[in-house]
Amino acid sequence: MFCMAKKIILTVTNDLVTDHRVHRVAETLRTEGYDVVLVGRKFKYSKKVVRPYTTKRFGLWFVKGPLFYASYNIRLFLYLLFHRFDGIIANDLDTLLASSLASRFKRKPCVYDSHEYFTEVPELQGRHFQQNIWLQIEKRLLPKVAAAYTVSTSIANEYQQKYGAPFQVIRNLPLKKTITATSKSQAIMYQGALNLGRGIELMIDSMEFLPDVELWIAGSGDIEEELKNRVQKKHLQGQVKFLGQVPLNELHDITVHARLGLSLEENMGKNYYFALPNKLFDYIQARIPVLVSDLPEMKQIVQDYQVGEVLQERNPRSLANQIQGILFNETKQTGWNLHLEDAAQALCWGNEKEKLIQIIKEHI
Q1: How many domains does the chain have?
Q2: What are phi and psi of 112, to 5 degrees?
Q3: SS3 for 61?
Q4: What is the 3-state secondary structure (H, E, C) of 148-210?
Q5: Dist CA 11 CA 238 (whole Å)
Q6: Range of the domain at 290
Q7: 172: closest CA among 115, 252, 120, 220?
Q8: Using one digit for the tens of pLDDT, what is the confidence trace for 73-98?
Q9: pLDDT of 292
Q10: Are 167 and 64 found together in one domain?
Q11: What backbone phi and psi angles, to 5 degrees, belong to 363?
Q12: pLDDT at residue 217, rounded to an integer
């Protein structure tokens, strides 16, 4: 007798192009036999998305702010209302309202995937009215989801203490990569969102003291134009390269040619303080050493696996000196190369995905 595959709809507010985590989750569930649909948004500049599972992107009049979140959640709720599903995975708080309401209406489970400590993001610091709205949504909906998981132990502990709801940890680990001998450019790499508090301004300013080094910036975001203007004012166009949004299948091929990966988030609220970003693990899979902020989760990975250094001082000249000490110390490079190989074998999605599969089997 024919048995229809269970259908899971994953919801996000981005345009799908560079969301590594959600793609890995969707592809894992597809290979486990689920019928997967990934729903997001579409910008005028969004690149074409070709995936082995179904995707749906909404074109919206508003691109950010309260009107965007309201219009997106209305569109998402209506979409979910008129489409069959056996469960929803709501990615982050900005999709949880529509996902939770639709799941209750249809009496289907909603699982929550928290990519960050949403109410503590830098964009909400000092904006008490907006922050309180998100806190109320979180307070009312999060304890009622069927299951929840997040990206780091620290964030999971915070949520558990706050709401008494059990949170599991599924880190942002990439697929395991096999690296062949590659030529290295005299370049350092930043990949990820170009948003407030990522330390990108500090990276750019340090390039004045690193005349023989390039900085590659892969991503887009709210402060992209400000960063490009900063580069122009400092006459660093020859050193700082903005690569834009790079598709998932191309980013790794670029990263392997860099000699150092940067993750220099500032301590701007608990979200960044407890951050364990996917770019850290992407650098490791590319077998390049990392330089990270002195923040607990990232620092722990670097120290446990001995794959790089922790930032000593947050000023351009000190950062440049530390980068020079990393790039031109052959003894350090040799040691890191050995440890990076071991870390890449351990910190990969193949080892992490079993926790996801178990959660979904139990709750959807």
Answers
A1: 2
A2: -110, 125
A3: coil
A4: EEECCHHHHHHHHHHHCCCCEECCCCCCCCCCCCCCCCCEEEEECCCCCCCCHHHHHHHHHHC
A5: 39
A6: 187-346
A7: 115
A8: 999 999 999 999 999 999 999 999 99
A9: 97
A10: yes
A11: -120, -15
A12: 97
